[in-house]
Each structure stands twice: as structure tokens, then as C-alpha cells.
Amino acid sequence: MHPSIFKAYDIRGRSPEELDAADAHRIGKAIASRFASRRVVVGHDMRRTSPELEDALVDGLRSQGADVVRIGLCSTPMFNYSIAEANGGYDLGVMVTASHNPAQDNGFKITFGNNLPVGMGSGMEEIRDLATSDAPMPDAATRGGVEEDPGLLDRYVDAMWKLSGLEDEFEGWRISVDAGNGMDGYVLPKLTRKLRGADVRELYWQLDGNFPNHEANPLKNETLQDLIADVRKSGARFGAAFDGDGDRVGFVDENGEPIPGDILTALFAREILKDKPGGLVLYDVRSSWSVREAIEEAGGTAKMCKVGHANIKRQMREEGAVFAGELSMHFYFEELKGCESGDLAMLLLIRMLQREEKPLSQIWKPLRRYAHSGEINFTVADPKAKIDQIATGYKLRASSYSDLDGIRMEFDDWWFNLRASNTEPLLRLNLEAKDEATMRQNVEELSHVISSEA
After folding, report:
1. 294 touches 282 (CB < 8 A)
2. Residues annotated as catalytic (active site), given as ranges
């Protein structure tokens, strides 16, 4: 087992080449040993190797005396909900999934009983060291028990529906939903059945860990092409596209135009603030000026946050935020203990359309007030040194400066954020300006500085 499969907040690698059943068994032993866990909930996605890895993981956990509750096939939001509804009844949870990664990958997400993720700095290093060492891990004197929880899907769907506040009939509604052959294809049949009278068009709801139609990643426009075509052909009010494990969702409007993740954050924040006036909303450092403006216009308090689900969940908990959103189309809800649910996000979009009584394009496009570059990646030898160089060169000209996550500098008519990747020698640039020409000019200038060797 190679230590490189242990990432900042999950375990991921090619399976079975880098992660096989024997590895999963040892990882299970290491998890239970590190946390002295007594009760662990375990679920898995639809990937080809997931059932075998789950079996081995459960055996490893039980060998160390942990009692295991198996929830079986599930999406990541279902898994998170199972922990949230237990309200401290589980010490840990482990989900067998590789999210939107390629078909040959698999892995584990490990979560504490309070729904915060286990990562580097909170136990992942010790799991890695135990699992990859040659030292034996003797079995516990008493083997842990096992039970199954087959009713989670129904409870999850009912909870999301209740949280959405939707009740009306949906005669005349048509929506198009692309599950990308991922785990939401397991959730959507029961969830959309509650939209009584609606014509719900099914794209790739069949579970298939080979992802035969396209990558299940709504952040990439090339994966949205079938959805866009179906919305335009059918006259659907909108289209939704889920990622592989169901925790992210992207949307296109009735014209098939994709809606940026930060604009979606603003839309959902506005909708939630109608019922939670004055609430705190977190938005990530890559987000448009429009997001802060929309939150404040809706009477909320807007606060920038670091990128990444671990950072956001912790900050939501500490500061009492009612909602948070990322450019990556993760949307976090207070009612779910700060966890994501693409399903709840889709239901809230439907509620928004009911309340607004106008096409989605007329709701979101007024928030596209500025010209945004999108995220641009640069390969650099020393990301930290390059960030320091750019900070020195631009800081005196900036009207505001933040090093919350990389650097974000704001100027009179533009801003940029430059961050290092956690896993690769990459710098990620996001830049926005008050007009297209200013945006392009500054992207060109910064790109030259980032790419230069000086």
C-alpha cells in the first residue's frame, strides 16, 4: 500500500492496482485502532470495486472490536444524513467512494460522528502510518458486531422534501435531470416521485461505475452537453447535473445556459434568507463581487471563507452560518449540520422558481454583473515563491488584501485570487473585472508574471 493514496481529506487511488481488498481490510483495522471506535456507519457507492472494498473494510473494523452499521448503497449526502440523524450515535462513518474521479479509481471518506471530516491534522496521518507499516495490528479480544439499516433512502428523501417546503402539484412542469450514471440515480426515482404531475426527463440514471456516457462532474461544461441539448429540445424549465457521489449539482437554465457556481450560491442565499433574515452566509474566496452584493441586498451578512468542505463545515459550525456555497457547486446547509446535498439544492431551485414566477434566466442573469475569467491553472516549480512574488508586486496597488486562502487582492475595477493546489504543483487563478476588456487585460498581465521564471 503506497502512502500517496492518503490525501488531505480522503483516501484515493486506482483500484485494485493501488487499493485492493487487503488494503481496505488493513485500513479498516487502522481506522478502528486510531480512534478506538465503538460504533461505525459504513456505506458505499456504485463503483465496480466498491462492494469488495466495503466487505474488507467492515471486516477490518470489526476485527478491532468496532460495531458496524451497514447502510449499503448510498450517495454521499445520504451517508452524511445517516450520521446527522444519529446525532452522536456513531463515533465515525466511512464511505467507499471516489466521487467524480475516473472509473478506475476508488477510495474512502472518513467522517467523525459530528459530521466533520477526518483529514491530515485530525487523524489521517496516523491512519496512513498504521496502515502502511509492517507492524502487526492484533485483533481485539471481542470481535465487533454488525447490523444493517435498509431504510435510509426513504428517510433521507422524506427529510429533503420536508426541508424544501414544497407541497404543490407540479402539473405542466418539465425538468431534465442528468445523474451521470452516478449515485443520484439511486435517489432521484423516489425524490422526483414527490413532484406530483411533473414531467421529469431522466438522463443516465442507471448506476454504472464505468461512467459510459460522460464524466460525472457538473463543473466541466463538456459534461453538460447532453443535458443542454435535452433542455433545449424538450422545453424544460431547467436542467440539473449531479456528480458521481451526489454531493455536487450544477444547473442550466431554460435556454440551456450553464449557471456559474458562485451565482448559484447567491441565488440559494437569497432564497434561504427569505426564511432566515439577517443570517450569515459564507462564500469562497474565488466568488464574484455579485455574491456579496446579493447576500447583503437580501439582508444577510456575507463572509468570505477558505475553499474546501472541511474548512467550510468547521467555520459554519463555529460561526452559526445558515448557508455556504463554493464555486465548485458544493452547497452547504445549516439543517444538515453544514453538509452538502445536491438533492436539497435542486428542490430549493424549484421552490425559487415557484416563488419568483418567471424563467430561471431572468432570475440569475441580473447577477452576472461583472466579467469573470473562470479558474485558470498554471504549472509552476515553486507555488509558494510565486505567490510571494506576486503579493510583493501587487500589494501596494491594491485597495484590499487578504491571505485567507492564497492571496486575494481587490482594486478599483478588478480583483484576483491566486491559490496553490493542495495536491499538484499548480497555481489556480480567478480574476474578475467590471468589464470584459479590463478582465482580459489583467488576465494577460498576471498570466505573464505567473509563467515567467523570475
Report:
1. no
2. 99
